[in-house]
């Protein structure tokens, strides 16, 4: 599938992502009372193989959340292993973190960031999307069934400066949802 966006559509989508990711960063910053910096949103068309290859970094934890509604897809959160204790302290988790407490922390972080990102993005385009609860994910230990041959992937990186912790939120849309998104973007641009 070729999902070439016009320059105008790409700019509009990046701006919408900037706003929704900013809302997510603000939610987490208020919770942990720390400064968070964001990368510029990256938008790309990826195959399942490319998607799996991005989930092979052994220095990261991964969560996934499906969403349904007028758009469908998944949100993948990558969370750095470095800085987990520090971010845990900021979120009132007592060190040392057991594996269960670490998983709880990671799922809570993913839900805060992914929830705010997807909600902000969908609301700006007058779309609805209901996000499932996050689960821990490992590309190497689970056989994963993809619902797409290729997808539009939107990602942004969050860095918590005081803890050396960083996270990336990746929103993957199914093919039919990409068409819905493009139609909404076109309406916005007219």
Write up this protein:
The chain has a single domain (7-185), classed as CheC-like (Chemotaxis protein chec), CATH 3.40.1550. It has 190 residues and is of the alpha+beta class. A hairpin with a 3-residue loop joins strand 3 (60-69) and strand 4. Helix 1 (7-32) crosses helix 5. The mean pLDDT is 87. It has helices at 7-32, 48-54, 84-90, 99-124, 175-189, and strands at 36-38, 42-46, 60-69, 73-80, 129-131, 135-137, 151-160, 165-173. Helices cover 43% and strands 27% of the residues. The chain starts with 6 loop residues before the first helix and ends with a helix. Strands 1, 2, 3, 4, 5, 6, 7 and 8 form an 8-stranded antiparallel sheet that branches. The protein contains 5 helices and 8 strands, in the order H-E-E-H-E-E-H-H-E-E-E-E-H. It is globular.
Instruction: Classify the secondary structure makeup into a structural class.
Output: alpha+beta
Determine the N-to-C terminus distance.
Answer: 25 Å
CATH class: Alpha Beta
Strand content: 25-35%
Mean pLDDT: 87
CATH architect. name: 3-Layer(aba) Sandwich
CATH superfamily: CheC-like
Q: How would you describe the shape? A: globular
Determine the number of helices (DSSP H or I, runs of at least 4 residues).
Answer: 5
Count of individual beta strands: 8
H-E order: HEEHEEHHEEEEH
The description of the largest β-sheet is: 8 strands, antiparallel
Helix share, percent: 40-55%
> If you consult CATH, what is the topology?
Chemotaxis protein chec
Return residue spans where pLDDT drops below 50 for at least 5 consecutive residues.
none
Total of domains: 1
Question: Whole-number radius of gyration?
Answer: 16 Å
């Amino acid at each position: 599938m070729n999902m070439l966006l016009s320059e105008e559509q790409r700019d509009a989508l990046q701006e919408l992502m900037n706003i929704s990711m900013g809302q997510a960063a603000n939610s987490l910053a208020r919770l942990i009372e720390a400064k968070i910096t964001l990368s510029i949103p990256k938008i790309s068309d990826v195959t399942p193989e490319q998607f799996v290859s991005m989930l092979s970094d052994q220095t990261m934890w991964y969560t996934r959340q499906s969403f349904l509604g007028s758009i469908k897809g998944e949100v993948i959160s990558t969370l750095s292993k470095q800085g987990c204790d520090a971010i845990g302290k900021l979120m009132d988790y007592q060190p040392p973190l057991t594996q269960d407490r670490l998983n709880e922390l990671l799922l809570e972080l993913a839900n805060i960031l992914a929830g705010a990102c997807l909600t902000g993005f969908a609301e700006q385009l007058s779309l609805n999307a209901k996000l499932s609860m996050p689960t821990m994910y490992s590309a190497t230990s689970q056989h994963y069934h993809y619902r797409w041959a290729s997808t539009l992937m939107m990602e942004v990186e969050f860095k918590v400066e005081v803890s050396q912790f960083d996270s990336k939120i990746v929103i993957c849309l199914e093919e039919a949802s990409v068409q819905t998104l493009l139609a909404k973007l076109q309406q916005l641009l007219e």
